[in-house]
Amino acid sequence: MMNKKGVSQVVTTLIILLVVIVAVGIVAAVIYNMTSKGEEQLEGSMDCFNVQLGIDSAVLNGANYDVIVSRGADNNPEAITEVKLIFGNSTHTGTVTKTVSVNSLGKQVVPVTVVSLTEVSAPTSVKVSAVIGDQTCNPVGERTID
Predict the structure, then answer these.
(1) Lower Cβ count inside 10 Å, N or C end of the chain?
(2) Handedness of CA 11, 16, 17, 19 (dihedral sign)
(3) In percent, how much of the chain has pLDDT > 90?
């Protein structure tokens, strides 16, 4: 006759070992997912960190706000293809996205029509955010509108 207690202990050990292997696999998959997403976010943040963008002047010129956006000598080879201009007054802000090309050490006049500012009337200041790829950088260079 066969010893059934010995077989039962072997089966129990194999089941516990299988559960441990599955649990380790699940934990490894979650950690790998978290670290790979963090790496992508870090690369996008570094692009924004290296860009030196600012506003030289902002003037109401008839029906347009002429905003001169300048870029410093940064180490980012990525071209800025869009900027977001954030206009504001004491109570409201409004954002306008413009397609522009601002290279290192370059300047660009960005005209914004008064009519396109639907969220804010009579803005008193403007800030600029660079758009690099699909990453929007933090706004910088607040300037009072003349």
Answers:
(1) N
(2) positive
(3) 21
